[in-house]
Model the fold of this input.
Amino acid sequence: MRPAELHLTAAGARKGSLILVNRDHPLQGELFPDLVPLQGGWPDQHLDRTAARMLDAAIRAVQGTGQILPVSGWRSQDEQQAIWNSSLTDHGPDFTARYVARPGCSEHQTGLAVDLALCAEHIDFIRPEFPYDGVCGTFRKVAARYGFIQRYTEEKQDKTGIAAEPWHFRYVGVPHAAILTEAGLCLEEYPAFLRQAPRVVRLENGRRVQVSYLPWTGTETRRPAPGACWQLSGTNEGGFILTVWEGEA
Done:
């Protein structure tokens, strides 16, 4: 059951399924995500519980089991540091800056990001092959329906600071993935987009959802709950995103 009020706190502004994590907005403290093992991927890969369930559903929906492999999910700070160091040694600073996030600035540390690969005899851990056709292309077409976006695209490199990564998908949830995809936005642009005005969308089942931005004032505040079914996520850039589903759950 949802609480009877919204509770806006400094800690809450830095966590949630819509937090922005990049070179300008590093993680602030350890998140302790609710992790579960990923199905059918490389050994010992984990993801946030909800993200893992939706990823599995999306792969099954396109009959991609055994063809689409989760290569890299959640990473600890130490693991991200090791990947960064290894890439510097093997590929140099330019390549590393384009394709590997600095420790503390990686979405993989949230448990909400996953690198996917088309099954092959050899898979590149840093840049796995995930083409735009075949079963991978079909996955792209349904990804937003299950709450995922391709996080890094070529046209948004100046905003994200990361080169295009066709293999890297980020769970943001429904309806945010659809809003971002239809508006042609990257996650860096989402808070400003919502600050312009709340957005109302209609889901495939006909249910209406309103999404709005709440600024963080720096003071802990409480507000009445906006209804029976809502979700509040921090943005890690100075505010919150409130999602309200109309009607009963």
About this structure: The two ends are 11 Å apart (CA to CA).
